[in-house]
């Protein structure tokens, strides 16, 4: 098991907490962490304070987390910060291992599209289902869902992680493999009431186009 930062190349015998906010300098290193799957364990009790209205974080920085068992569907969670309840929680149709493979290619662009309903359209975060494209390929759908007790437990284990990737200590479900995660800061940009995007921010403060998520209602 290999740690990061000042612990680089040191062998660690037990689970470690990963907080790479000062050590991860580029998207390429985050991709390396995906390949290494640095284990992370930060168990403690917590409760989420209520999140602000979704519109309050437009044009700001949010915390984005991908998580899921290796062979089962991956989820994406948007939070104002790691200590608050999700503003948005989506379940993608693709397995976590597929997403990890796309990340290793060096460019990941996820586009979520939906049709405008009749009458007044609500927030993009209220859309129940999206058609999903990954690097230009249609890969199924993304479904908005409420946070479950399992989701809350997973996010609790990652509360101390600001930026990083790894494997969480959780019991595997029927051969679904390890519980994997990737967490980073994203710049949230609202183009219009019908378009919004999230762009990974490298820990040096620069916004990156290497990992982006787009929401588009047309």
UniProtKB/TrEMBL annotation:
Highest taxon in the source lineage: Eukaryota
Cleaved signal peptide residues: none
GO biological process: hydrotropism
PANTHER family, sorted: PROTEIN MIZU-KUSSEI 1, PTHR31276
Protein name from the UniProt record: Protein MIZU-KUSSEI 1
Taxonomic source organism: Nymphaea colorata
């Amino acid at each position: 098991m290999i740690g990061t930062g000042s612990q680089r190349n040191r062998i660690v015998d037990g689970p470690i907490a990963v907080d790479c906010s000062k050590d991860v300098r580029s998207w390429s290193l985050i991709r390396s962490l995906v390949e290494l799957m640095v284990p992370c364990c930060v168990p403690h009790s917590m409760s989420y304070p209520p999140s602000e209205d979704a519109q309050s974080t437009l044009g700001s920085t949010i915390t984005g987390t991908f998580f899921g068992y290796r062979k089962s569907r991956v989820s994406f969670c948007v939070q104002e910060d790691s200590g608050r309840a999700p503003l948005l929680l989506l379940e993608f149709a693709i397995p976590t291992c597929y997403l990890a493979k796309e990340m290793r290619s060096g460019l990941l662009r996820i586009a979520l599209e939906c049709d405008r309903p009749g009458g007044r359209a609500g927030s993009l975060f209220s859309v129940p289902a999206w058609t999903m494209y990954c690097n230009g390929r249609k890969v199924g759908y993304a479904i908005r869902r409420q946070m479950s007790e399992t989701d809350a437990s997973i996010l609790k284990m990652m509360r101390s992680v600001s930026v990083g990737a790894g494997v969480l200590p959780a019991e595997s479900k029927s051969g679904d493999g390890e519980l994997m995660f990737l967490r980073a800061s994203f710049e949230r940009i609202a183009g219009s009431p019908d378009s919004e995007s999230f762009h990974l921010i490298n820990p040096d403060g620069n916004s990156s186009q290497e990992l982006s998520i787009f929401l588009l209602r047309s």
